[in-house]
Automatic annotation (TrEMBL):
Gene3D superfamilies per UniProt: Acetylglutamate kinase-like (3.40.1160.10)
GO biological process terms on file: 'de novo' CTP biosynthetic process; UDP biosynthetic process
Protein name (database record): Uridylate kinase
EC supergroup of this enzyme: transferase
Function: Catalyzes the reversible phosphorylation of UMP to UDP.
One Pfam family of this chain: AA_kinase
Catalytic activity: UMP + ATP = UDP + ADP
Length: 255
């Protein structure tokens, strides 16, 4: 079940004033969605729009941790299919997430939203190395924290990284921002007749092998009772709406 807001720097009465449902969130941004109208890579318009929406959350006192995917640049599995060593491909994929995080930080800072990039792979002189307690301190101080380089290990995805970081930072919820409206009974990109779920349990997602999130990530959130909400980032206002308790996308929890 989605929990009420957890303890942190702002008081209950402050949260009451802004009426946000969550105190601290982990937002997973799809790398692929960053391409927007561009042919490849990153569309600055998408970054600016996301920065605006994230800024609205910061403005009402919500602590925002972010994991960005890398699918717009490199995916290890795809590179491996093309003949590359899998681990090398995964390293390239993780480095792609650092590039996306740097671009997102740039957009946030241009919108005067204080933000930090931490990397699971040490990259001295470019970004800070991930350290949980430091990350939590930044969040508590109101900075947006971008957790990059996934888990730092090959054979994982940024969905797993998002769930892992969400659990580590004691987020109230993992919000998976994607290109579709939520979780469907089949891939809506390939099946126009797919129907959307409002709610699913972890076990239903696992049993039905619903492909919106990898199964390792679902096992992790199930084991730690971390609710996940999948929603459409291309729908203006959806992020703020769901943080305020509105109905958006699909909720996955223990039921
Ligand atoms: N049952 C399903 N319900 C919803 N979406 C599904 C389902 N099965 C497959 N998908 C596909 O999963 C995609 C969501 O993955 P998305 O690209 O947002 O995440 P990702 O692959 O983790 O991101 P990245 O681009 O960072 O690698 C949707 O675009 C959708 O087409
Ligand atoms: O913990 C991780 C996270 C990611 N990778 C590699 O990066 C790419 C991009 O991430 P997406 O989740 O697909 O957006 C991924 O395909 C992996 O190759 C990783 O190795 N470990």
């Amino acid at each position: 079940m989605e929990s009420a807001a957890k303890s942190g720097s702002s008081t209950k009465s402050e949260r009451g004033a802004n009426k946000s449902k969550y105190k601290r969130i982990l937002l997973k941004l799809s790398g692929e969605a960053l391409t927007g109208d561009a042919e490849f890579g990153i569309d600055p318009k998408v970054l600016d729009r996301m920065a605006l929406e994230i800024g609205q959350l910061v403005g009402i006192g919500v602590q925002v941790g972010i994991v960005v995917g890398g699918g717009n640049l490199f995916r290890g599995a795809a590179l491996h299919e093309a003949g590359m060593d899998r681990v090398t491909g995964d390293h390239m994929g993780m480095l792609a997430t650092v590039m996306n995080a740097l671009a997102m930080r740039d957009a946030l800072e241009r919108s005067n939203i204080r933000s930090r990039v931490m990397s699971a792979i040490p990259m001295s002189g470019v970004v800070e190395h991930y350290e949980r307690r430091t990350g939590i301190r930044y969040l508590t101080a109101g900075d947006v924290v971008l957790f990059s380089a996934g888990t730092g290990n090959p054979f994982f995805t940024t969905d797993s990284a998002a769930c892992l970081r969400g659990i580590e930072i004691d987020a109230d919820v993992v919000l998976k921002a994607t290109k579709v409206d939520g979780v469907f009974d089949k891939d809506p990109a390939r099946h126009p007749d797919a129907s959307q779920y409002d709610h699913l349990t972890y076990d239903e997602v696992l049993d039905q092998k619903l492909g919106v999130m990898d199964l390792t990530a679902i096992c992790l959130v199930r084991d730690h009772d971390m609710p996940v909400r999948v929603f459409n980032m291309n729908k203006p206002g959806a992020l703020l709406n769901l943080v305020m308790g509105g109905k958006e996308g699909t909720l996955i929890d223990r039921g």
